[in-house]
Design a protein that fits this description.
The complex is a heterodimer of chains A (about 210) and B (about 300).
Chain A: H1 2-19, H2 23-44, H3 49-77, H4 89-108, H5 121-138, H6 142-163, H7 169-197
Chain B: H1 2-32, H2 41-50, H3 62-79, H4 96-117, H5 121-152, H6 157-162, H7 166-190, H8 209-212, H9 218-243, H10 251-275, H11 284-304
Helix pairs in contact in B: 1-9, 1-10, 2-9, 3-4, 3-9, 4-5, 5-7, 5-11, 7-9, 7-11, 9-10
Classes of the chains: A mainly alpha (about 210), B mainly alpha (about 300).
Chain lengths: ~210, ~300
């Protein structure tokens, strides 16, 4: 029951990320998604103290630190909207369910060694992963692409939580550290890009400036 | 007992529908810090309108005169199909959800036809918007009902809603939640409530539903007002039926729960109207796309379950 609620939360946050042009709302929604992913192991696996540590770390990093860093970049850049993505927001919203259907199809053909806690886990994790990829390729602003990267990571994390019986905590923590550094570096990089080029549209980054 | 329930469902809808508007108004007044009009004010308004004479523009034809009674007739038929916690309806049959959806479409058709018949450019604009937005809500409604049908294995509204039990929520919570969200958006859009349209606005450039009925007066306008109250009641009943797990309850208890649920929906609509600004006209399709997307997600989840 509760795991289904989290799955619906993941799907809905994905849809908001696909359909919203406001970067602030997107950052918040990706933060909510990260916290939801962090809550997943508590409802799937039997209780263990290191699960609480993982959830707490997810909450602090994805729920507080990342949004704070991205909001800070946003304020420095004074960019608030994704104006003209390659794929319009309405079309993205309609592509979303198709991607979910595709994820369901893929997961029904996926042979996993043992039973999964809930039938919706794998498709939703794959859906989150695909949405992250889609965001990276269909949006112009560098900041939205960072968000796409975070969504992608949430998908991978959810997938790992779904299939791993023995939670390899050290690996998860390593990944969390990786994306922390990633977001940190990307935040600085975006700031420098915008100072050099006066914008963060990635479609124009291949034109040379002297 | 069964027959009593079947007769009581349309009667409750017919008698209590305007009260729903009164509840919404009072909720909005509460949020605005006012005392608000009495709960039965919509009844007074209808009574007043019924005692006025109707004025018809010389540019209108029989289409304009036919429209209000036709709308009301279609909605009254709909009260015989949409259940209110009961296990059966007077007119129910296998597949009556299609009839229900198309009776709603018939209402819209007559409203749009009458608005075009007045030859007023503002009403034409309203008609065009109404037709466009409802073309987007209809697939959402159908796909959501299809997901419900898939979950319950039934094709008639009362049987579909009877299959919604707490146990069903536990196993198919995801799909039911998405269906409920879709139906909530459809309810707001179909009844021209706030994120889509403001029922109180009288600025022609942004009105949708209200602009189409500007030329109606007297009893005709009463029919249309009463019809929109009925429509709100019926769509709330559909939302409550799909979301409220009344499946295991006895019929009287389920009906009481459904009536309570309908009024709860009215309170929620009033709260949404008090807390939200209406969307810019160009953003409304995005909201409706979202409803379609949620419905499709519900269908995908129900196919997997």
């Amino acid at each position: 029951m509760w795991i289904d609620v989290i799955m619906v939360a993941l799907v809905l946050t994905n849809m908001v990320a696909l359909g919203s042009s406001r970067l602030r709302a997107c950052i918040r929604v990706v933060a909510i998604q990260g916290v939801a992913v962090g809550l997943m192991p508590l409802f799937i696996h039997s209780f263990a103290p290191q699960l609480l540590l993982f959830t707490a770390l997810c909450f602090i990093l994805k729920g507080v630190v990342f949004p704070w860093m991205l909001m800070r970049t946003l304020r420095q850049l004074d960019v608030w909207r994704e104006d003209s993505p390659y794929v319009s927001f309405g079309l993205s919203l309609l592509i979303g369910p198709m991607v979910l259907a595709f994820a369901c199809w893929v997961s029904s053909h996926l042979r996993l060694p043992y039973d999964i806690h809930s039938a919706t886990l794998i498709p939703v994790a794959l859906f989150t992963l695909f949405v992250g990829l889609f965001l990276i390729v269909s949006r112009k602003k560098a900041l939205t692409q960072v968000l796409g990267y975070l969504v992608l990571e949430n998908g991978i994390c959810a997938f790992g939580i779904a299939i791993a019986y023995e939670q390899p905590l050290i690996i998860e923590l390593g990944i969390l550290l990786d994306i922390f550094v990633g977001v940190f570096v990307m935040g600085i990089a975006i700031f420098h890009i915008s100072r050099e080029f006066d914008h963060i549209n990635t479609d124009q980054l291949n034109t040379l400036r002297n | 007992m069964k027959l009593v329930a079947e007769i009581l469902q349309p009667l409750l809808a017919i008698v209590l529908a305007p009260l729903l508007l009164g509840v919404i108004n009072r909720v909005k007044a509460f949020f605005a810090g006012r005392h608000g009009q009495p709960f039965v004010q919509p009844y007074y308004d209808l009574w007043r309108l019924l005692h006025k004479g109707a004025v018809y523009s010389r540019s209108t034809s029989w289409v304009f005169r036919l429209s209000p009674p036709a709308c009301l007739a279609a909605l009254l038929t709909l009260t015989l199909i949409v259940p209110l916690g009961g296990r059966s309806t007077l007119l129910g049959f296998e597949g009556d959800l299609v009839l229900a959806a198309y009776l709603l479409a018939l209402v819209r058709f007559f409203l749009v036809a009458a608005a075009l018949d007045t030859a007023s450019s503002f009403e034409g604009m309203g008609a065009s918007r109404e037709a466009f937005f409802s073309a987007l809500t209809e697939p959402a409604l159908f796909v959501a009902l299809a997901a419900m049908a898939r979950l319950s294995g039934r094709l008639s509204l009362p049987e579909m809603f009877a299959a919604v039990t707490p146990g069903n929520w536990a196993t198919h919570g995801a799909a039911l939640l998405l269906v409920a969200a879709t139906l909530a958006i459809v309810l707001l859009a179909e009844n021209s409530r706030i994120p889509v349209d403001d029922p109180n606005t009288h600025l022609e450039l942004t009105m949708i539903h209200e602009v189409m009925v500007l030329d109606n007066s007297g009893p005709d306008f009463a029919f249309i007002q009463y019809g929109s109250a009925l429509k709100l009641w019926l769509l709330s009943a559909v939302l409550v039926g799909a979301a409220l797990p009344t499946g295991g309850l006895s019929t009287p208890l389920a009906m009481a729960a459904a009536v309570g649920g309908v009024f709860l929906v009215a309170v929620c609509v009033g709260t949404v109207e008090s807390c939200m600004a209406r969307l810019r006209m160009t953003h409304v399709p995005l909201l409706l796309f979202t409803a379609v997307a949620l419905a499709v997600l519900a269908l995908v989840f129900s196919l997997r379950g």
